[in-house]
Amino acid sequence: MLHTFHKGGVHPPESKLTASAEIIPVDLPREVVIAFAQHIGAPAKCELKKGDHVNRGDLVAAAGGFVSANVHASISGTVTKIDKSKTAFGLPVDTVTIVASDEDHERDLEAVKNPVAARTDEEIAALDPKEIIGIIDNAGIVGLGGATFPTKVKLCPPPGSKAEVLIINAVECEPYLTNDHALMLQHPDEILEGVKLLMKAAGVDRAIIGIENNKANAIDLLTQKAESDSRIEVMPLQVKYPQGGEKQLIAATIGKEVPSGALPIATGAIVQNVATAYAVYEAVKFGKPLIERVMTITGPSVERPGNYLVALGTNLKAVIDVAGGVPADTGKIILGGPMMGKSAVQIDAPTIKGTSAVLMLPQSEAKRNKVEPCIRCASCVSACPMGLEPYLLSTLSRFEQWEEVEANKVMNCIECGCCSYICPSTRPLLDYIRLGKTTVGGIIRARQQK
Fold first, then answer.
1. Over the stretch 374-404, which tens digit does the pLDDT of each residue have?
2. C-beta separation of 144 from 293 below 8 A
3. CB proximity list for 441: less than 8 A, separation 6 or greater
4. Is the peptide bond before 390 cis (omega within 30 degrees of 0)?
5. How far apart are CA 438 and CA 418, in angstroms?
6. Which of 8, 103, 209, 246 is most exposed, with the fewest beta carbons within 10 Å of its own?
7. What is the mean pLDDT of each run of 10 residues along the chain (450 residues)?
8. 185 near 217, Cβ under 8 Å?
9. What is the 3-state composition of the chain as percent helix, strand, coil, each rounded to the nearest 5?
10. pTM of the full structure
11. On the CB side of 314, how many CA atoms lie within 13 Å of its CA?
């Protein structure tokens, strides 16, 4: 029997239109807009001034604290602007604009074609855990599953906590998304080397790579590649959403539940995304910071849906154009998957570390149905993977009963959308719960500061 988590969950249509699509590198742009806040935590602090020249991989902004991450230039060029730009969601963020000359562009293209290893295998083997964590920190690597939590922070658990197992999240349970699947098929050896580096950094002798069973070719390939290392187990998982959630994946793979209010390390587990493991390998082997990532560009009407390797800071519209542009019947553009992704208000915006996918849904699939009265079926309760009562949290939030919202553990919500998906009355449960979570989070922070 396949492993899975046992509390809640749903089974939305997979819609993996690009499951067999190879990774296509997008041409390096002549101009990028690099945002300083591409991660959970404090924004990075600019290290440049207008007129400075940078090379591909140079530091643009330094981490603004322990929970923060460095940001680097994805192309060589001259800084032409340090200003605020709007994200795809319409929010202003601090950015730097870099424009490449012909000479810069040609040099970058040559470097991409012929990468030079920064370290030999012997030098990598000699690295101690602190040195590996330092490389990861300097490279600005964050979780690439969507949360963008700084990787080095997870590798430095609080005093009294001890890691026992590294869990690699290769689940990719969101409908439509296939970027991790493509990465596993094309770079299995590099991923496994990244896993070993993360194991050494975390001080553990056991790793589990959790992959849902709809990626049988990836399971077979990684199992074959990992045969020579008994410390690494490739674990097939039942297809179930939201198994890619950190707490759900821990429950599925090692059978432990993260206590309410506790960190995942309380179970002895450190969870890292499979694309993060690949980024760690590239940082250690080639000295390459996180300056590009694989993104799935997809949708039922997209002309050339696929998995694309994109330099961070590339304009979203330019990436979409590579896939054939925005289809005429598009009703909504979502960054990420349809369950946890968020609707973009504009595509004239830079890509960032957390841009895992661009999903363009037709109007017929994008519009919400009419909201009907709650029929008290409790489907949302059964579907909640955190054991919450979504109907209650939604109602309490709608009526601004913040003390009750907090008492009913709204902060435990992972915003997976299972409740809204399963509701036969198409009630906007998650919308109100997000409102409640944001408000209560603010109340808690204000209380702690007193």
1. 999 999 999 999 999 999 999 999 999 999 9
2. yes
3. 411
4. no
5. 19
6. 103
7. 94 96 97 96 95 98 95 98 96 97 98 95 97 98 93 93 96 98 98 98 98 98 97 98 97 96 94 98 98 98 98 98 98 96 96 97 93 97 98 98 98 97 97 97 92
8. yes
9. 35, 20, 45
10. 0.96
11. 25
Q: What is the DSSP letter of 244?
A: T
- Coil vs helix vs strand at 439: helix
Both tokens of 31, joined, read 């101009």
Reading the block at residue 365, the tokens are 């699939």
Cβ proximity of 42 and 68 under 8 Å: yes
Beta strands in 242-324 (DSSP E): 269-273, 292-298, 306-311
pLDDT at 168: 98
CA distances from 381 to 7, 67, 378, 393 (A): 10, 34, 5, 11
Q: Kindly give the pairing relationship between strand 357-362 and strand 342-343.
A: unpaired
CA angle 331, 172, 141 (to 5 degrees): 100
How do residues 42-65 score in pLDDT, each as one tens digit?
A: 999 999 999 999 999 999 999 999
Q: Which of 15, 12, 339 is nearest to 176 (CA)?
A: 15
Cβ proximity of 380 and 390 under 8 Å? yes
What is residue 442's predicted lDDT score, i.e. its pLDDT?
96
Does residue 157 contact residue 265 with C-beta atoms inside 8 Å? Answer: yes
Q: With 0-12 CB in 10 A as exposed, 13-18 as middle and 19+ as buried, what is 447?
A: exposed
Query: 437 to each of 80, 109, 366, 441, 446, how far by Cα in Å?
Result: 39, 45, 25, 6, 14
The SS3 of residue 285 is helix
CA–CA gap between residue 148 and residue 303 (Å, rounded): 29
The pLDDT score that the predictor gives to residue 147 is 84
Cα 450 to Cα 115, 407, 444, 445: the distances in Å are 52, 20, 10, 9
Secondary structure (3-state) at 145: coil
pLDDT digits (tens, 9 = 90+) for 20-38: 899 999 999 999 999 999 9
Angle CA 280–283–289, to nearest 5: 110
For residue 117, give the 3-state DSSP assignment: coil
Instruction: Please count the residues of the chain.
Output: 450
Residue 137: CB atoms within 10 Å: 21
Residue with tokens 């179970």: 267
- Record the tokens describing residue 416, joined without a space: 């997976």
Which tokens belong to 337?
């998957």
**Do β-strands 165-169 and 207-212 pair in parallel, antiparallel, or remain unpaired?**
parallel
CA distance 379 to 418: 10
